[in-house]
Each structure stands twice: as structure tokens, then as C-alpha cells.
Amino acid sequence: MVRLPAVSWSSVVPVLAIVALALAWGRELSVAGALILGVFLAGAVLAAVHHAEVVAHRVGEPFGSLVLAVAVTVIEVGLIVSLMVSGGPGTASLARDTVFAAVMITCNGIVGLSLMARTIGGRVAMFNAEGAGGMLATVATLATVSLVLPTFTTSTPGPEFSPAQLGFAAVASITLYGMFVITQTVRHRDYFLPITVGGDVVDEHAAPPSARSAVLSLGMLLVSLVAVVGLAKTESPAIEAAVTAAELPHSVVGVVIALLVLLPETLAAVRAALRDRVQISLNLALGSAMASIGLTIPTIAVASLWLDGRLVLGLDATHMVLLGLTVVVGTLTVVPGRATMLQSGVHLVLLACFLFLAVSP
């Protein structure tokens, strides 16, 4: 009897998603069709992050967290550009809404849930204050340059950058992100490794996958990303129609995109925290926030060369208050290098405020 090799869901789902994309491309979707494609879209996102985790485990930390963050950001950028290409006045602020939602979800949601997972039993979460503090400072700078300054510049009317200002913000963003990558992987790698109470680095217990498995996962990661971007483009009219039918602000579309993209990474961060690897959770959360701004803004700046319409990046007063409070609270959380359940609750309440105000501004 010949045994067939085992086939995992993470390999089957991206292929099925590509098939569903090919069948639905260029067609008007019914409600049932949109729901089915939505399932495949979510499955492709989960598969993409799974394969990114396999590659990450092969290359080790802190490279692993970097691979995950970049993979998630590629998905996010693909979704944003796909929806912006579809046009419409509501897409002018889509990049801003999605990036800001990603910052709030990562810095408050993922951080809060990870700390909660570690501290809910009365324990104290331990992490490297040097690495976490540097990441938070970079996130705060990127968010201010890209999302706050456009509200106050005067070269163009409204919360928008002029072409020269957008180019400067793009260069500054990619430069800061590049400096972070060098710091995390070369200069001060030890700042981003998990620690125990005694200060020893926690070893990865599971054996890393083989080179063959990592290469296969890299290939399936690319297939999954193609499926995600294509399905998002196909689903974009249904997403916008659902938001309009529910009489919700158009900014909710950006929140939906960020929640969809970051859900698998949230699960990965919580799993790491449960294994007493809170530093990995913070690497995932703050690294994703950095990548979301540092890679999305330059991409959107390039895309704006051929995309018609306005590009609104500046936050309104309410969101600037939430961003400022997030930075202050985050600083007080990471500076001591340890946190309790109280800090996790503060971050989660901030996320709840953002989500509530998103649907009820």
C-alpha cells in the first residue's frame, strides 16, 4: 500500500483561494458569493501568516518577527492599493484610516492581549525595555510625521501633504524603518530577544523546520499573498456596500482591513506571551506598527503618481488625542521592562475607545 504525503490546510487553502479568485474575477458578486470569497480571503490571510511563521522559525529571532511583520504589511498594502484603485471619494482617506487603525490595534490591542495572557494569573510580564522602548519611539515618530503633520501643513488645503512633503515623509519613513531593521538584526540584536526573570534568553524548544520546508513555505506565502490581494480587489465593492448599508462612517473600511490582516498575528503574539516570550509579542506588535507606517506610506507615495484623486493623511483632533495617549501609556508600560495586568487593561480600554469612536464618531 502506497501512502500519499500528508497535505496540510495551509497548502490547500491558498490554492483553493486562487481558484475561487479566477472563477469570480470580473463578475458581480451575490451576497452568498461575497460571503464565500470572504471565507477564502480570511483563510488565505491565515495561511500567509502561517507560512511566514514557518520561515520565521527557520531563520530564528529576531529575524522571525521581522519576517512576520513585513508579510503582514505586504498584505495590508495590497489591500489598500486594491481598494484605492477601485476609486471613489471614500478612498481618499483609506490609507490613513487603515494605517492608524493598525497602529491602534497593534500598540493597544496586541500589546494589551499579550500582557493580559501573561499576567492574568498574577504574574509579571518581563521584557527588554531597551528594545521595546526603541520600537515605541520609532512608532511615535513615524506616526507623527506621516499622520499628524499633514493636518498642520499649509502648502495644500486640508489635511494633505504637497507632493514634495509626501516625498519627504516617504523617505523619512523608509529611512527610519531601515535603521530599525539594522538595529534589530545586526547592531543590538540582544535587545529584541526574550528574557526570563533571571535575565537568561529563552531558547526555542521546537526544532526549526528543514530548509526544504522553509522554501516550500516561502513559495506558498507568495501564493497566499497573491490570493489575498486579488480577493480583496474582488471583495472591495461588497465591503464598501456593507459599510454604507449599515450607515457607518467610511473609515470603518480601514478598521475592517486592519482587523482582518492583524488577527492571525494577534493570535501568534498571544501564543508567544503564554509561553513567557513577551518580548516576541512586543516585537510582533510594535514591529508591525512600524512596518505598517514605514512601508505603507512610501508605497502609497509611489502609487499616488498614477492614482487619481486626493490623498488625505492627516488625523482629526479625536484621533490625535488617542494617538498621543497611546504613546504616553505605551512609554509608561515599556520603560520599566515589566508590566502587570493593570497595564494590559489600560491598553485594551484604549483600543475599545478607538473602536467605539470608529463606529460612533
UniProtKB/TrEMBL annotation:
Segments forming domain Sodium/calcium exchanger membrane region: 31-185, 217-358
Superkingdom classification of source: Bacteria
Keywords attached to this entry: Membrane, Transmembrane, Transmembrane helix
UniProt-listed InterPro entries: Alkaline_pH_Ca-Antiporter, NaCa_Exmemb
Transmembrane feature ranges: 7-25, 31-51, 63-87, 99-120, 132-152, 164-182, 214-232, 252-270, 282-307, 313-335, 342-359
Protein topology in the membrane: Multi-pass membrane protein
Location in the cell: Membrane
Identification of the protein by name: Calcium:proton antiporter
